[in-house]
Design brief:
- By secondary structure, the protein is an all-alpha fold.
- It has one domain.
- The chain contains five helices and no strands.
- α1 packs across α2, α1 packs across α3 and α4 runs antiparallel to α5.
- The protein is elongated, with a radius of gyration of 17 Å.
- The model has no long low-confidence stretch (mean pLDDT about 85).
Length: about 150
């Protein structure tokens, strides 16, 4: 049980870092389209500032915002798929992607049409965030299958 909990937290951390990368990249691409000079030093410093700013300096930390639906979806999938699925990778990938898609679609409804994650303002951004969730589900499935999944 404790290993499953740590696996869920690690998957949420990976997804959070990927979401920051996508969000920072989309903002830097937009600035680049306005002919602003972008170099490697600016990219790395902006990424590090965004990781700190989105997780420690905001009113709702990004890690908490992402981890709640992701952990809920992945854990429910673990409970449901114990006896149903032979290949457990696909349900976890689907659950990770669906958790991020639901978060990106329904969060603006809760916040009066405000997009708190700037990378998800467009449909391409929502797709990229969904892919981040899929990757988090895949990482979680790898950690669970390497342990044999004999725990809940």
């Amino acid at each position: 049980m404790i290993r499953t909990f740590f696996d869920l937290l690690l998957a949420a951390l990976v997804v959070t870092i990927l979401v920051v990368v996508v969000s920072t990249s989309s903002n830097l691409l937009w600035l680049s389209s306005l002919n602003m000079p972008i170099d490697f030093n600016l990219v790395t410093s902006t990424f590090l500032k965004d990781v700190v700013g989105m997780n420690f300096n905001s009113q709702i930390p990004l890690y908490l915002l992402i981890s709640i639906p992701l952990i809920l979806f992945l854990f429910c999938t673990k409970l449901i798929s114990r006896k149903i699925w032979m290949n457990r990778t696909f349900p976890y990938v689907l659950a990770g992607g669906m958790s991020m898609l639901f978060l990106m679609i329904f969060l603006p409804f809760a916040l009066d049409n405000l997009e708190p994650i700037s990378g998800s303002r467009t449909n391409i951004g929502k797709l990229c965030m969904t892919m981040c969730g899929c990757l988090g589900g895949y990482i979680y499935s790898l950690m669970q299958t390497s342990k044999g999944e004999n725990e809940i």
